[in-house]
Amino acid sequence: AVEREELISKIKAQLIEKNAVLVSHYYVHPDLQDLAEATGGLVSDSLEMARFGRDHPAQTLVVAGVRFMGESAKILSPEKRVLVPEMDANCSLDLGCPAEEFTQFCDEHPDRTVVVYANTSAAVKARADWMVTSSIALKVVAHLKEQGKKILWAPDRHLGSYIQRETGADMLMWQGACIVHDEFKAIELDALKKQYPQAKVLVHPESPASVVKLADAVGSTSAILKAARDMKADTFIVATDNGMMHKLRQQNPDKTFIEAPTAGQSATCKSCAHCPWMAMNDLRNVLKVLEQAGTGYNEIQIDEHIRARAKLPIDRMLDFAQ
Ligand code: 13P
Ligand code: SF4
Fold it and tell me: Which residue positions does the secretion signal occupy (predicted)?
């Protein structure tokens, strides 16, 4: 505990010394969420993280999340130094959608508007017409459908099929998945619902359709938080990364939150519902990256040609979100 306190106070001092701000995702360790808030930074979903990093005056951004979040920050603010605690913190959606294969897929379907999820590399975004996060994906696709557009969607097939069901849009889909949300199981969730008949079920749309079907509310991490605040219920079953539990419990001390069941929870992993890449962020590597700021260590670099092209679909989304 002493070491933890010491790390926290060293990070606070470094943030001031380096004119830096810490931006954390809801899935990272509670210490990093609380620290971001306590130091004038932000803990939020991927859309708000991108917006906050762009608008904040600090010249150095420390992005505690996964790689694509750091890249989005750099794409939007090339003049800023963007640091990530762990360069290998990736995402199965990003890894499962290599730029070359994706480009070929797009080339084969030139009649389609290319919409990519935020959880992709800068090079994939550079091939897209639109980028969306889970909090705005439905609205953007509904808007494109209204304009009579046919869509090529990548990479998350569950989020894609959810949007397709909700909007009725013509969507050709890349077959990626999030290794965390893909593990939620409908039969077990249904059994848990029977055990807690009064509970409301909150589901992130990266989960399989059979799980989404059992939801009382479906949405991004921030939409899940909002639903938990607004819904009149005492108990909630939550199908998203269990890093979310921290904010849910902090904001709703009188409500009970239960993790939705995943495959092999007890057999193969204690906590299947936690992203191994998000878990790579901790107090130690946040401090290290701040101490090394200016040396190039863990600094996000993106080829300028790719960055400038990747900015277009992100700006389009941010303009639309206003
Ligand atoms: P949000 O956009 O809902 O924050 O989701 C990001 C993510 O990686 C979900 O797994
Ligand atoms: Fe990617 Fe899933 Fe981890 Fe989110 S939780 S960063 S989608 S692997």
Answer: none
